Structure formats: structure tokens, C-alpha cells
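dumping these here so i dont lose them again. two proteins, back to back, each one seq then C-alpha cells. dont judge the mess
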Amino acid sequence: MIRVVFFDIDGTLIRTGGAGVKAFSRAGHTAFGVPNGTITMKFAGRTDTGLVREFFHLHGIAPTPEHFQRFFDSYVFWLDHLLPHCRGGVCPGIFELIQDLRQLKPAPAIALLTGNIRLGAEIKLRQYGLWELFETGAFADDHEVRDQIAVVARQRTSEMLQLTDLRGEEMLVVGDTPYDIQCGRAIGAKVLGVTTGGATSAEMRLHRPDWLVNDVREISVADLIR
């Protein structure tokens, strides 16, 4: 029985048309005076906290709690400003998949497992009408390392469901990068890989997800719960 389905956000649930990357760049410029400071950075599958730490390292900025807070305050301002002006949207089949999961008896919890900070996740998902569909989740605020975010997600969902702990076969992670597969394996979960975002089929296949599809319309809930 699948008791919880954890979804990644960027490239899995939505595409933001580059709003997140642009907001990071604007934050680096306006908060720390570094123009184009993220141009060499790779974003797919990373955590926001890890990305900011890399930005600080690249530009000789001390990674103090105050500097992290200043960066993220600027980032969420720019994200909220830029999202409506970027050509993003919900990935194909996502609304339908969540609806089908909710019709199961018993229905699994629908949760987030993301490298976004929580407020960034909320801003992105509210823009596309998805935020209210999720019951719980874990974020980059919880830990800088994605595998540890997965551990927090499992613990938090176990508590919500009033279980001692979720077993691996009771969890499904849906994501679009090898990092999503890796963090799913870190908690023993099954993994559905999709190629709607940051990685090719060949790259994803190397990490052996349980299922791999171009988008979630290619698989049914019945296939996932067998």
C-alpha cells in the first residue's frame, strides 16, 4: 500500500519559465551587489540553501545566518514579482494524477519533497493553483542536503499519519532529476522518474528509478500501486 506520494516541484509539478533562476540572480545583485553572479551555477535538482552557499563561496561572502536571510528575503521578493511575467505552467497530467491518487481507497497523503525553501515553494505553487493540494512536505529550510530533506519528509508524514514510521514500500517519490531518485532511495522509497524537467531519459535510467516516463500521463495510478 502506498501511504504517501512525495512530489518534487521544479520540472516535476511545474515549469516556471526560468523565474526561479532569474530571481536568484536578481537577489545576488540587489542584496549583495554581484551582477550575473549565478551564471556558472547548475540549478537542476539542487537545494536553495546549497545554491546560496555556493553563491557565497564563489563571491567571497561569509555564509552567516544573517546573509542567508538577506539573500532569501530578496529572492522571494523577486520570485513573486517575476513569476507572473514568465511563461511557466503545470506539467502535463499533474492535476489528473493527483485527482486519481485522491480517489484511491484509502487515499495516500499528497506531500512535497523539494529543494525549495518553503516560502519559495508556496509562491511558485500558488501561482499555478497547486499549493492547497499538498498536506505536508519538507523543504530546504529543513536541511541543506536533499537526502536529509527526504528523512524529514518521512518523519513529518509519519507523524501526520500517526504511524511509528513509514516503510519504504509505503512511499513513492516523483521527480525529474537523478537527485530525486537518490533522495528517494535514501529513505527506501519507490521512485517514479519523469523527463519533464532537468534530465534526459538516458541520465535518469542510469540511476534506476522504478518507473521512467516522459510525463505522468504515460502511467496510471493502477501501475504505481501494484
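---- next one ----
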Amino acid sequence: MVKMVILVRKDLKMNKGKIGSQCAHAALAIFLNRGEVVGRMGGLSLECDVTKEMTEWIEGKFTKVCLAVNSEEELFEVYNHATVAGLPCVMIKDAGDTVFNGVPTNTVVAIGPADAEKIDKITGGLKLL
């Protein structure tokens, strides 16, 4: 099974709308950060380097699970473990324009799409959001 996991900082007490937008940023950034937008006749397209698991995810169920972390330190810890494990991952830093009083703030991390067992080795102890 292939899935994506999105970690959300609970300590920030973001409202549901902010959580949704941050999770959407993360799910898109996983792919956008791996490629480039190119101009073509009649529009733009995204060319990106995806893994076998990412392709399987795109062609499958788009399984996503949102988990909670309690602090920025915990967010970085899990992010670092995922990076060392070679999993696709991205950390989202909100600009702070609407919620965080102008302070750029790390809010969420997306890991995957990747093999669920590999992700679970890193995130298995975390609780659902």
C-alpha cells in the first residue's frame, strides 16, 4: 500500500481552514518541488521526477492520513527521520500574513507518497489529527 502522511502541529491551535490550506500546500509541494512548470503551446504543464510509489499513488486511491505532532521540535524530528530514510517529504513554512502575526512559522510536513510500511516505521507512534 502507498500513502501520504501529513503531520500537523497541534501547539499552534490553527483553525480548521488554516489546517486545510496548510495540508493542501504540503500535498502539492511534494510534487511541485520535484519538478518545474514549463510553457507549452496553449498552456503550462508540470514536468517532475516521481518515484514508482508516487505514480502508484496518483493512479490509485490518493490515500492521505493526517497525524498530530505537539511542537515544532517534534515536527523537525520526524521530518529529519523521513529525510534520512530517503522518503519524499516537505516542510511547509507559512508566511504569517494571516494568522501568525507576520512571523513565518513551520506548520506541517508531508511524507510520501511512499510505501506505507516505510512511513509507519517513522510515524507509527503518532496519533490521528
